């Protein structure tokens, strides 16, 4: 399965089995985490077999069950941190799907366990990605229409493919507070007002770029 194919089959999963992540899966995730950290100036960390973050001894803590593995989304505080966390974090989410694992973005329902990861001076933990073998494959969320999240006219096929993939991306409480624009041959995306809307912006941009074959988001951030 490719990352592009993973977009169409990946859904958020909150219940996991007790299966451990294999050595091969861990190596692949660590390698991509290293790439994301270098490219995005981030400090993501893979946490394995950690029982306290989701208090897994409680049957349904925050509607999660058996979460023992997660990726800590850590980076230096700056004005575009959330966008980068979303963009690179979704790359890891899709990679996990290709490795036979399931995931869920988590902004609040977890316990910070200081000994589980490192937060350096000037950095902050903004969330985690729950990770493991799902007890199920999740279900597709409801989506807004193409017209509800776009501006412009005479959209090329690649733009349509990108937006359709973006509508499949996970967003906080499925709010989908984003809007893509196509004018003079150029694409851009902006966030609306909403909970974790700027992190969502990075997530949907990742989907758009993979499906459309057009990269623009990181350049857009640098020009803001």
CATH superfamily label of the largest domain: NADH Oxidase
How many strands, what sense, and barrel or not for the largest sheet? 4 strands, antiparallel
What is the mean pLDDT?
93
Secondary structure: helix percent: 25-40%
- Domains counted in the coordinates: how many? 2
Task: Name the overall outline.
Answer: globular
Number of strands: 7
Unreliable segments (pLDDT under 50, ≥5 consecutive)? Answer: 56-61
CATH topology call of the largest domain: NADH Oxidase
Label the CATH architecture of the largest domain.
3-Layer(aba) Sandwich
Please outline what is shown here:
With 224 residues, the chain is α+β, with helices and mostly antiparallel strands. It has 6 helices and 7 strands; from the N terminus they run ααββαβββαββαα.
Question: What this model shows, in words?
Answer:
With 224 residues, this protein is of the alpha+beta class. The chain folds into 2 domains: 3-132, NADH Oxidase (3-Layer(aba) Sandwich), CATH 3.40.109.10; 147-222, NADH Oxidase (3-Layer(aba) Sandwich). It has 6 helices and 7 strands, in the order ααββαβββαββαα. The protein has helices at 3-9, 23-40, 81-98, 157-166, 197-212, 217-222; strands spanning 45-47, 69-76, 102-106, 123-132, 150-152, 178-183, 186-191. The strands form 2 sheets. Strands 1-2-4-3 form a 4-stranded antiparallel beta sheet. It has a 3-stranded mixed beta sheet with strand order 5-6-7, with helices on one face. Helix 4 links the parallel strand 5 and strand 6. Helix 4 crosses helix 5 (197-212). The termini are far apart. The model is unreliable at 56-61 (pLDDT under 50).
């Amino acid at each position: 399965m490719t990352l592009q194919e993973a977009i169409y089959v990946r859904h958020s999963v909150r219940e996991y089995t007790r299966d451990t992540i294999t050595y091969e899966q861990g190596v692949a995730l660590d390698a991509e985490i290293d790439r994301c950290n270098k490219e995005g100036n981030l400090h993501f960390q893979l946490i394995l077999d950690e029982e306290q973050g989701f208090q897994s001894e409680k049957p349904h803590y925050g509607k999660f069950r058996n979460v023992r593995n997660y990726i800590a989304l850590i980076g230096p505080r700056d004005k575009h941190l959330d966008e980068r966390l979303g963009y690179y974090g979704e790359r890891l989410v899709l990679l996990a799907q290709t490795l036979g694992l399931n995931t869920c973005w988590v902004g609040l329902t977890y316990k910070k366990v200081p000994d589980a990861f490192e937060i350096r001076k000037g950095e902050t933990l903004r969330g985690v990605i729950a990770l493991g073998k799902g007890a199920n494959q999740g279900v597709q969320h409801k989506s807004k229409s193409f017209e509800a999240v776009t501006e412009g006219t005479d959209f090329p096929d690649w733009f349509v493919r990108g937006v359709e993939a973006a509508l499949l991306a996970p967003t906080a409480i499925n709010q989908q507070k984003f809007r893509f624009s196509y004018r003079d041959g150029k694409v851009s995306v902006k966030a609306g007002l909403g909970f974790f809307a700027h992190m969502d912006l990075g997530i949907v941009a990742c989907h758009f770029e993979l499906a459309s074959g057009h990269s623009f988001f990181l350049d857009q951030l640098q020009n803001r």
